[in-house]
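User: I'm designing a mutation panel for F5/8 type C domain-containing protein and want to avoid disrupting the core. Could you give me a predicted structure to guide residue selection? Please restate the sequence first so the numbering is unambiguous.

Assistant: Good idea. Sequence first, for numbering, then the predicted structure tokens:
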Amino acid sequence: MSDILVVILNSQLQRTSFPVVQPLPNWGLWLCEGTTIGCYADEKAHNVSFSLFPSSTLNHPFAFSECPPLGLESLKVKDSQIQASSYKRMGLGPHRGRLNIQSGVEDGDIYDGAWCAEYKDQNQWLQIDAKKLTRFTAVILQGRGSIWSLDYVETFKVQVSNDTIKWKPCMNATEEVVFEGNKDSETPVLAILPEPAVAQYIRINPQTWFKNGTICLRAEIMGCDNICGLYIEGTKDKLDFRHHNYKEMRKLMKSVNEMCPDITRIYSIGKSYMGLKLYVMEISDNPGKHELGEPEFRYVAGMHGNEVLGRELLLNLMEYICQEYKRGNQRIVHLVEETRIHLLPSMNPDGYEMAYKKGSELAGWSLGRFSYEGIDMNHNFADLNTIMWDAIELETDKSKLINHYFPIPEHYTSEEAMVASETRAVISWMQTIPFVLSANLHGGELVVTYPFDMTKDWAPKEHTPTPDESFFRWLATVYASTNHVMSDPDRRPCHNEDFLRYNNIINGANWHTVPGSMNDFSYLHTNCFEVTVELSCDKFPHASELPIEWESNKESLLVYMEQVHRGIKGVVKDRDTEAGIADAIIKVDDIDHHIRSAFDGDFWRLLNPGDYDVTVTAEGYFPATQSCRVEYEHYPTICDFHLTKTPKQRLREILAKGGKIPKDLQLRLRQLRIRKLRASTKLINRRRASQQRRARGAHN
């Protein structure tokens, strides 16, 4: 065997060759010389690539299914590659037999939650064409996803073929193997083949099923399509493409900080229920400091702990920015120098750890979604929408209505309120830093949603726009149109919604109503605009898919961040002292949503190109208005404002300091008193005249 050379690809796609010297007892497994790496080898193979795993795991049952999924769940396997012996109707056809596929809400929906055979006998099968010789190693089975029916397969057989005519059963010595299937409709079950089977086609042949149901299943197939192992491809970037648990995430963030200490800072905004810190990576040319006029941007991932792609993308993003900044990539250098970036890769680390322990194909659809306390953080922020809409209906004087910075209700802030510690930490973070733009990274679909997420009057779904509808549509389009998978016109829908009809963007409330969303809270309680990005059909993609997912999302992540520089920005200052004015209200004509200046007086108003009349008001100052033109270039229009104190405000400040009132102020105050006296006299005279007219009318 000494002439066999094993070529190993590490995570950076660097090739290393080792002669095979130590045969291991099972199925062509070998230990490479001078390493602790196990690799699967064919005795006839020479100078080929092999899938790798630590030799310490060779006795673990999952080691022999280390091949990645073929891609039924991720849609890498096309509908045309899946066939069946029969099916009940189109909505339950073979193309619906994909792991974790979700059904529509209607009974008999055309998008149902599994493949279901028309007949109840042992001659039914679901067949997958891998398109090339593949080393099949395992099958993962799941029952039908439905709120109307309970259907799952309890036992099944597996056969393989190269021509679909002659089928070879999966054997265990001299007996055909009958695999254990499901005991419920949602929990995925892994069945490892006794020996890897090399073929082009594979069939799942149900033998028994839930006695009160019928033959229905969702599946994933594990297999290496180069027969010898897994070849990682998809990007030239040398990043750490794997799933990181809490300790590994912290280690990676620390390594990025050590590599780029001048532009990075790690800080924590709080802890999860189980005490795991919510770490944030800050990237800026002056980390730890808000710079006057520099906008603050954030990405949040992992609100649902089992939707893991966003977490890995943000870890890759911080690596990438560090590497490219050091290389002098001018796009990245400009982004770092002109923006303060905050990356929160895991808002729900407790949930992630639960899903991570099961693994990418076995976590199911919902394990790890909620916090440890069972709270869905996507519905856990204060519902300010209802407060706003109730005020609009009840208030007769529309001038008294507010349209921004809605206060949080007292009952929500109490210790007894069912608010997750993670949610409280994020709200405090939002209130501390004057964020301008954000995105909330999710998984399980391919679409970008924008506020409002909640419908008025609790309708199940209805288009519910904000006053900034046009800009939110722009933000959503920016991400969706640059994402490789979303922008593919030939892609199929993930589950039960065809978002291609909407160019892969949708008003959140028009998809399904979400009371208490982070997007709506961010818009109504702070200055920050936020969208939700559903990154992939698969909530927990296999590690082998991460390089491709990174390449698909890299440009989208960068170009979306750059939108923080679109619109107008400026500083509101006191005309006399040049001091910044905090909490000044910035109003844009014809857009009924205001923002406020930050503690240094700086502000950022996201706007599409156009001409705008902007008015700034602040307590104790006269309002100021100016016209601001937003151009198409990727930099903001500067609109600074200098406000003049009102005489009353000047008087208050002088009296508070115990000073003397200047003559010009005395004169100004006298003029104001005279003006006020004249106005009140006119009002009294009008009332008297009105009373006299009514009296004459009554006398006549």
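For picking mutation sites, this is relevant: The mean pLDDT is 87. The chain is about 25% helix and 25% strand.
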